[in-house]
TrEMBL record:
Gene (UniProt): OGN
Residues making up the signal peptide according to the UniProt record: 1-18
Family: Belongs to the small leucine-rich proteoglycan (SLRP) family. SLRP class III subfamily.
Protein name per Swiss-Prot or TrEMBL: Mimecan
Keywords assigned: Disulfide bond, Extracellular matrix, Glycoprotein, Growth factor, Leucine-rich repeat, Proteoglycan, Repeat, Secreted, Signal
Entry-linked Pfam families: LRR_8 (PF13855)
Species in which this protein is naturally found: Phyllostomus discolor
Gene Ontology cellular component terms for the protein in this record: extracellular matrix; extracellular space
GO biological process: articular cartilage development; bone development
Amino acid sequence: MKILQSTLLLLFVPLTKPAPPTQQNSRIIFDYGTDNVEEILPTQDYKDQYLDGKNIKERESIIVPDEKSLHLQKDESLTSLPSKKENDEMPTCLLCVCLSGSVYCEEVDIDVVPPLPKESAYLYARFNKIKKLTAKDFAEIPNLRRLDFTGNLIEDIEDSTFSKLSLLEELTLAENQLLKLPVLPPKLILFNAKYNKIKSRGIKANTFKKLSNLSFLYLDHNALESVPLNLPESLRVIHLQFNNITSVTDDTFCKANDTHYIRSLVEEIRLEGNPIILGKHPNSFICLKILPVGSYI
């Protein structure tokens, strides 16, 4: 009888394993009356997987390029370099102001003429430190119409500097250190070289002879001992004041052998500040519509 009871007890013992303990904070259910609010909180395993996955993504985002990719990047950077033309023009237009064919390089302390864009028509390089002008400065800029180098330190200009500038109409070299003049372009309308150190021997006899368009000539405040020879008929304004001119002749402005000759275009001649008494040379101005400005005794 006892053996039968023990056998029956063994049969009623549960054969399944006990359930594992419930993980904390995996799910909390709140029961507020009729509403069930369920809040799901991340387990520690989930946190570990999330952080591990994040680290994997960060590691994947840091890609070390191999030698081949570096070579390709190098080649791509080489293809993006500017052309030689852009390289030549860019520095000038960064230092100066380039606008519609005009280049403004004023007060930037340059000591040579900068490379100019080929389409340049006007160059204003006033108040710098340029000491010399050469033919190479304008060799490839044929469209120049106006050059202004006022207030530099120019002492020398090569004779061929302006020889290829067939369109040049205005040339200003005022307030420099010039002792002589170069060959001037044929279509010049205005030439200004006042406030220099130019002497009469620094101007060749035919310097102005063929300048049939020259209307304005400014050579005041120099060291001229005489009026330049062969001044063209086209001149309207002639400024020669404050030089060392001591005399004028009947052929200086007029023609001694032609009493009917009239220089009709002249509107102004200035000779004041020279060691000359204009009243002693009345016939020297007989062809003029107006008398020169100066001392008359």
